[in-house]
Amino acid sequence: MASEQAGSRRGSGAEEEEEEEDFGYGLFPERRRGGGNGELMFVLIFFLDPYAKLLLDAMKNSGCTVFRDRHFSCEDCDGCVSGGFDSSTSQIVLCQNNIHYQSHMNRVVTHELIHAFDHCRAHVDWFNNVKHLACSEIRAANLSGDCSLLSEMTRFKFGLKQHHQTCVRDRAVRSILAVRKLSKEMAEKAVDDVFESCFNDHEPFGRVPHSKSDAKHAYRDFQNRDRYYRNL
Ligand SMILES: [Zn+2]
């Protein structure tokens, strides 16, 4: 899966690396060298599920040009992170050393595409406003299916809806802590402060898609509506 092209600098427009602040790059060592390789991407795109296709279309319709080969970068990452969104280059990083299944890949792509969508549609201040980050993490966990498998397994133990909310909240907190040096309490507070509105913001799906066919329907709804544009 991994074929290294170490040192091949991808055209990010910037010749030099961004200011050496810790933007979570600690987990993505290849980011410092200008990104990894993107050769997996054409394979990946063919298998993209409806969630990811919908998001790619939504981005295009919002005026965010999506160049598939430039928007995704396959890299080896540290720890057990499986993906990231680099807002300085609008690139999605897929951790090829930590993703081993197509279904996992789809989930990571969808999760990160939601960050990319938020980045594109709103002026997200990722680094100075933790509530902005919290909101996007809530949406990514809620809409990507990160919590759906677990929900399936535990739906008979807990109320499905309640469990889904708890899962989304926990994952959002964990995602923030992975990329920011904050106390757990601060991350939890940021998530709780914006939870209500961000959990109920399902753009561009219109609702939380709970299955592949559901995502397909949401995708069709999306293609047929112009209501969307007025909400931007
Ligand atoms: Zn995330």
Protein model, in words:
There is one protein chain. The chain has 232 residues and is mainly alpha-helical. The protein folds into two domains: 23-121, 2-Layer Sandwich (Zincin-like), CATH 3.30.2010; 125-212, no CATH class. Helices cover 52% and strands 6% of the residues. The protein is built from eleven helices and three strands. It has helices at 29-32, 41-46, 50-61, 68-71, 102-121, 130-143, 148-154, 160-179, 184-199, 212-224, 227-231; strands spanning 72-75, 83-86, 91-95. A hairpin with a 4-residue loop joins strand 2 and strand 3 (91-95). The structure holds zinc ion. Zinc ion (ZN) binds at residues 111, 115, 137, 140, 175.
Describe the SSE topology.
Layout (H helix, E strand, L loop, with lengths): L28 H4 L8 H6 L3 H12 L6 H4 E4 L7 E4 L4 E5 L6 H20 L8 H14 L4 H7 L5 H20 L4 H16 L12 H13 L2 H5 L1
Parallel strand pairs: 1-3
Antiparallel strand pairs: 2-3
Helix pairs in contact: 3-5, 3-10, 5-6, 6-8, 6-9, 7-8, 8-9
